[in-house]
Amino acid sequence: MKVHLNQEIAYQEASFATSDTEQTYQEMLAFLDKQTVGAEGCIALSSTLQPLFCGVQESPDEATRSAVEQALVLPKVDSAYQIGIGTYTVSQFAPPKTIEEIKQYIPQLVDGPNRIHLRLIKENTLTIIAQVWISS
After folding, report:
1. For the chain, what is the domain count?
2. CA 103 to CA 83: how far, in whole Å?
3. What is the pTM of this model?
């Protein structure tokens, strides 16, 4: 699906980020498992699946949630990393057991996008969803 982002999605650097992609992915899943509904994380990856950044975002409060539902502009947040404004091709799926398994959701992996955003979102108390965002 195509998504046009009108405002950046901001993340704070995760304390558990490492240069090992698989370890970072597993740490992110464990972190989100303990968080409240709505919390999310983002691992920015190179086209060779090397981690460029790992960040987290707390669950939004009711005012923020309402503003998002109404497509209102949110206040700018100081952050270590953002998914920038633009158009993205987005795939959504259940988080795979390993980071290697996300390759099937990324077209043209070798010569493809220079930045892949893997978003992991705590959808409800038992479910985390994964999304791959690639700039179009």
Report:
1. 1
2. 20
3. 0.90
